[in-house]
């Protein structure tokens, strides 16, 4: 029996940017709102975001507007995006940023006091509203304080075990509090998932421990559909050492300032593999590359600045060929510019202050003197819960999703800066439409027997006690498998093997044990997280098998080219009545002529 | 991984003991391991019941503050090798009730946070279509430093005043109030004054400065407190000497 029951109009799961923005909107819409988060308020993964929020306000270049932003987003996503979401996002992001500013967000300014915007990969004009390289902290702080201001109830350090349905519609959730290990029932007319990503399914990730695919898996088990799960973004430069920081991002700015990639033989390998369609825009030798990064407009960019997916694959290739660094990455060297400039040390510290600090503080390494060891890191999943582009409601009535756990806006690849803006645009919409749904529908019933069953199942690890397997060992093996077999470079045979191994982990997950009491029991929590990790891992592997082509973040060694017939479909997974994962292709609805025209006009 | 170091970790399990005891664990100690690596090693390999908070591993979420050999530290940024040959004593942050092992209850801080109204207070909102509220880089510079706080609670753990008088608002909350007071978009200084000026507000601080020393983000709460005291003193002088409404 749950310890107690809370009743809300709208229940929101996750308190990162999307969850908080949804809470604000739902509360403003007159709904009673409950917010559940796994960590303390303000500590969600959003806090780690650095670059900024993309919004076509045109402050730094008045040629920018929603049409350009829309076209950039679609090009980045290789046209398998939900075009309606890309349109809404481009149109509404400026107002969402201004709103955040009005609530007090600290943002870097132009000399005349307007919001300053910076350049970023894939965005035609300077578009990212930002504050230094800590935009995520500011975003979450502002939303958090506004949430408190509105009096939203926050249940901190609670984890949701499963959603509960009433006659097919969302009715609430069962959660446990991490502090005491007690179960709590939440009844709600509408539920919003805002749980972020899945990075913890991989060994090397930039995500915090919270990224275990909870929302993806909760939705899937409740009968919702997941799409685009094969599209995982691997950022080329993550820290590989020391272990506590493995996977943490090393900003693209290091390469922008002249940082070069080298293998263990000291070779600058990026010059060895430049795709034909990028050759005209890429430097022909290191000298030209250096001129580019020092501002010579006649020079072409060095190959280190090719697209994220390509650079990540080249690094992987070097490591697989045995030319990696001691800890399984390659070398990213900015210290070499000492040969080029007398004041290099100062220059690096001034241009890359947080990177200098990050390596000094966390790896005890001086980047002005030594090369960094870096490797690709699992950064973001484009795939997630399939939602209606306008309302963010899933196929399960009353169940909404927003932010990284929802899918559609990014297609096959996300542009940097489009994530923070996604959170506030679609967080707002999810909150608005969930509150409206709650107004129009009567309270559902919570099925007590179902809650009891969920609680019993969640406590099983204690029954096995010390006899059961250590859940960390299963998690670790799963992460190794996903990293090695469903990572940056994929082939059918490896993914089939991964699926076989996942079956084995499923069996092991049902045998894991936990000992002692339920208070703050990290081992038990991991035992429960395993279920979600297994679901998203299987969804990624099955979707990646289905997409027999290479597009965006998804690269198949056995199908290295794009295929036109796959450019008009999304891959979808859904649980069938027997509990098995069904994979299908669903056609992307045809784009209205007006939007097609926008894309055409922006091609020139 | 030849080098190893002993960690003496505070354990407190309220259902079985009335006060904290120490468990000792031996963990690897390569030169680039931080205290948090040591704790994760214990949790994953030796004892899955050890309770502590952490998240980002990069010093931005402010979850992993603990007392390391007597000093408040972010454990993701504190190297084990700096304490060689050990042992290293890891305890929960001081001045907070302990919930379990290394986890403390920061509810008191969360309640104080609300009291200082950490949001923009203004007479009237303008429509979004009218654009943003202007703020020059100079105006931003006035308070930007105070906006760097990550709520890691190290300053509360270090504050001798908060240790003696839990009613004291404390460094981070006052610095945050100043962050808003000094923001040119805000009109809330008056509304915050009642909270800041009451006995447990800024007057509680005797300017010891420990908060500023331990702050991993160089927020300088002590400076914020000092600055507010000065302006509050001027305000109260004015109200004393000048007729009402002047």
Approximate helicity band of chain A: 25-40%
The Rg value of chain B, from CA coordinates, equals 21 Å
Q: What average pLDDT do the residues of chain A reach? A: 94
Order of helices and strands of chain B: EEHEEEEEHHHHHHHH
**Main β-sheet of chain A: number of strands, strand sense, barrel status?**
7 strands, mixed
Structural class of chain B: alpha+beta
Total strands of chain B: the figure is 7
Describe the structure.
The complex is a heterodimer of chains A (604) and B (246). Chain A is built from 16 helices and 19 strands. Chain A has helices spanning 17-28, 66-76, 83-102, 135-150, 214-221, 253-256, 286-293, 308-320, 344-351, 353-363, 418-440, 448-464, 471-485, 492-509, 522-546, 593-603, and strands spanning 4-13, 33-36, 53-54, 117-118, 128-129, 153-155, 158-166, 169-177, 183-193, 226-227, 232-239, 260-262, 330-333, 372-381, 384-386, 399-401, 406-407, 569-575, 581-587. By secondary structure, chain A is of the alpha/beta class. Among the domains of chain A are: 239-376, Flavocytochrome C3, Chain A, domain 1, CATH 3.90.700.10; 457-587, Up-down Bundle (Methane Monooxygenase Hydroxylase, Chain G, domain 1). With 246 residues, chain B is an alpha+beta fold. Chain B folds into two domains: 4-104, Roll (Ubiquitin-like (UB roll)); 107-241, Alpha-helical ferredoxin (Fumarate Reductase Iron-sulfur Protein, Chain B, domain 2). Helices cover 35% and strands 13% of the residues of chain B. Chain B contains nine helices and seven strands; from the N terminus they run E-E-H-E-E-E-E-E-H-H-H-H-H-H-H-H. A five-stranded mixed β-sheet of chain B has the order 2-1-5-3-4. In chain B, strands 6-7 form a two-stranded antiparallel ribbon. In chain B, a hairpin with a 2-residue loop joins strand 3 (65-68) and strand 4. In chain B, helix 6 (171-181) crosses helix 9 (221-241). The model of chain B has no long low-confidence stretch (mean pLDDT 90). The interface between A and B is large, with 62 and 65 residues.
